[in-house]
Amino acid sequence: MSKSKQDQPRPDKPQASNPQTPRAESTSRREALRAQQAAEAQRARTRRIITAIAAVLAVVIVAVVVVVLVQNQQRQQQEEGLRAQQGQVTPPSANEAGNGLVFNNSTQNTGKPLVEAYLDFQCPGCAHASALIDPLLEQLAKSGEIQLTYHMLHGLDRGYPGNHSYRAALAATCADVQGAFPAYSKAVFAAQPAREGDGWTDEQLRGTLAEQAGLSGQQLADFQTCFDSRTTSDFVDAMQDLKPDYVTYTPYFAVNGNQWQPSNDALASADALLAAIQAVA
């Protein structure tokens, strides 16, 4: 009797494939290597882009610095050229030290307290002082009770573009050459822009404000020539450069070299202000 088919040996079943065969592992390593290479390439591109941007910014910064330096040098050369052409003039009201303008020849008030006002045309507090304090000081100087000297500084130009304080001080000293300093300085302060640093145009300084100060005809023409040619620039620089070290802000008032800040009570009248000055002197 023949054997049943069931009793016959069966052929072996095929084994399931193992995903971790050497070939699969090799493929996985290649893919990981390609991913790593792609990431490194991306990082390299990013570094190159950042380096390129930094290089461009560095070039731009250097270019801006060079332009500013060249402009400043050109302006300085232009001003020096104008000075050489026109020569320099010392304002007639200049004090003996050559760093201030004496009001109303008040140095003749021998033995009287010396009041010095350090002001900057761009300083809001100085504009307030011009309207409130200066008229009383000038009244006392006219009556022979004090000596009064103005120092018109331009230190605020360091914080703003346009050298407005310098140009205003230049115009004020040119106005002094025409005998119009007090009126001109008051006109400049009255026209001070609401925002500190905005300053005045040349047309305002050499035209509108000069006319408001009473300059006209040949006087106005001579004033404009003085302003345009920077005829008093050496004196303007001296007012800034020769100020005492203790003057670190504006408005700054001193009596016989002693710091003085007028109180509200002192501003009640000229007599009250004189008493305050004499107390400091």
Give the strand tally.
5
What structural category characterises the helix and strand content?
A: alpha+beta
**How are the strands of the biggest sheet laid out side by side?**
1-3-2-4-5
Strand content range = 5-15%
Please outline the major beta sheet: 5 strands, mixed
Sequence of secondary-structure elements: HEEHHEHHHHHEEH
- Computed over alpha carbons, the radius of gyration is 39 Å
Average pLDDT = 87
Helix content: 40-55%
Please name the CATH architecture of the largest domain.
3-Layer(aba) Sandwich
Shape: elongated
CATH class of the largest domain: Alpha Beta
Stretches with pLDDT under 50, minimum 5 residues: 1-8
Distance from first to last alpha carbon: 148 Å
Contiguous helical run count: 9
User: How many domains, in number, for the residues?
Assistant: 2
Specify the CATH homologous superfamily of the largest domain: Glutaredoxin
Any idea of the CATH topology of the largest domain?
Answer: Glutaredoxin
Question: TL;DR of this structure?
Answer:
This protein has nine helices and five strands; from the N terminus they run H-E-E-H-H-E-H-H-H-H-H-E-E-H.
Structural notes for this entry:
The chain has 281 residues and is α+β, with helices and mostly antiparallel strands. The chain folds into two domains: 24-86; 101-280, Glutaredoxin (3-Layer(aba) Sandwich). The protein has nine helices and five strands. The protein has helices spanning 22-86, 124-132, 134-142, 164-177, 181-190, 202-212, 217-228, 233-241, 270-280, and strands at residues 101-102, 114-120, 147-153, 252-255, 258-260. The chain has a five-stranded mixed β-sheet with strand order 1-3-2-4-5. A hairpin with a 2-residue loop joins strand 4 and strand 5. Helix 4 runs parallel beside helix 6, helix 4 (164-177) packs across helix 8 and helix 6 (202-212) runs antiparallel to helix 7. The termini are far apart. Residues 1-8 have low confidence and may be disordered.
